[in-house]
Amino acid sequence: MELGLVGLGKMGGNMRERIRRGGHTVIGYDRNPEVADVRSLEELVSKLTGGPRVVWVMVPAGEATQSTVDELAGLLSPGDIVVDGGNSRWTDDEKHAEELAAHGIGFVDCGVSGGVWGLEYGYALMYGGDAEHVARVQPVFDALKPEGSFGAVHAGRVGAGHFAKMVHNGIEYAMMQAFAEGWELLEAADSVTDVREVFRSWQEGTVIRSWLLDLAVNALDDDEHLAGLRGVAADSGEGRWTVEAAIDSGVPLPAITASLFARFTSQQEDSPQMKMVAALRNQFGGHAVEGSK
């Protein structure tokens, strides 16, 4: 099938390549002309000839997504579909779906996880929307997801995909914080002489073995004591939104909430634990890190 893809950054650019490898035609637009296939959204839409058209948006949440949806509403036709694959708040999905529906355009929200590794291993996808709209986009979902039976889910109505991805990221916060706290404690113990190899030993036969643990070992292989990093880790909107949703629903999230507040602490001082969190974020998502002073 044909797909228009808006936003060709670290995620979007690799997604374009993986979809193409799946046998589909992708026309990509980005503000950076060096990576774009076309010069404007209008040109992108004009080149999609096999209707109904599908345009997948991979731009930052908030104003950038809103302005893109607004422009597409004026360019697309009834029966076409917009997919928001960025990190939008689920409440924005409902607004975008309603705005596009007024023009007869369908909307699917899709939480995407896979970071810089998705091109090789596939992306975990969580999508929400009407069954008929999801079915139209399904060939692209199938091209992006990991091989096998898992890695993609129609989570429910519009907003469900980004809500599920938000909860995923909240869990990710807490898991990274647990690894970071354990690493700092091991580093502080005089009796432990090789923290990196302790972490490596956990990769097989333990209940905490995981891809996140593998990435921690990768980071320690690159810099055994993370001496080249500052202990600063940014918090994404999704971490905050997870805690806000828990408050609204009356659901206790002590571990996730504490991990969010630990990020706040890291932004005030150079935290040893946040060196590990920063290293892990860089390993799985290519997020920027700050060098030690």
From TrEMBL:
<dbReference type="InterPro" id="IPR006114">
    <property type="entry name" value="6PGDH_C"/>
</dbReference>
<keyword id="KW-0311">Gluconate utilization</keyword>
<dbReference type="GO" id="GO:0050661">
    <property type="term" value="F:NADP binding"/>
</dbReference>
<dbReference type="InterPro" id="IPR004849">
    <property type="entry name" value="6DGDH_YqeC"/>
</dbReference>
<dbReference type="GO" id="GO:0004616">
    <property type="term" value="F:phosphogluconate dehydrogenase (decarboxylating) activity"/>
</dbReference>
<dbReference type="InterPro" id="IPR006115">
    <property type="entry name" value="6PGDH_NADP-bd"/>
</dbReference>
<keyword id="KW-0560">Oxidoreductase</keyword>
<dbReference type="GO" id="GO:0019521">
    <property type="term" value="P:D-gluconate metabolic process"/>
</dbReference>
<dbReference type="Pfam" id="PF00393">
    <property type="entry name" value="6PGD"/>
</dbReference>
<protein>
    <submittedName>
        <fullName>Decarboxylating 6-phosphogluconate dehydrogenase</fullName>
    </submittedName>
</protein>
<feature type="active site">
    <location>
        <position position="165"/>
    </location>
</feature>
<dbReference type="InterPro" id="IPR006183">
    <property type="entry name" value="Pgluconate_DH"/>
</dbReference>
<dbReference type="InterPro" id="IPR008927">
    <property type="entry name" value="6-PGluconate_DH-like_C_sf"/>
</dbReference>
<feature type="domain" description="6-phosphogluconate dehydrogenase C-terminal">
    <location>
        <begin position="161"/>
        <end position="288"/>
    </location>
</feature>
<dbReference type="Pfam" id="PF03446">
    <property type="entry name" value="NAD_binding_2"/>
</dbReference>
<dbReference type="InterPro" id="IPR036291">
    <property type="entry name" value="NAD(P)-bd_dom_sf"/>
</dbReference>
<comment type="similarity">
    <text>Belongs to the 6-phosphogluconate dehydrogenase family.</text>
</comment>
<dbReference type="InterPro" id="IPR013328">
    <property type="entry name" value="6PGD_dom2"/>
</dbReference>
<dbReference type="InterPro" id="IPR006184">
    <property type="entry name" value="6PGdom_BS"/>
</dbReference>
<dbReference type="GO" id="GO:0006098">
    <property type="term" value="P:pentose-phosphate shunt"/>
</dbReference>
<comment type="similarity">
    <text>Belongs to the HIBADH-related family.</text>
</comment>
<dbReference type="InterPro" id="IPR015815">
    <property type="entry name" value="HIBADH-related"/>
</dbReference>
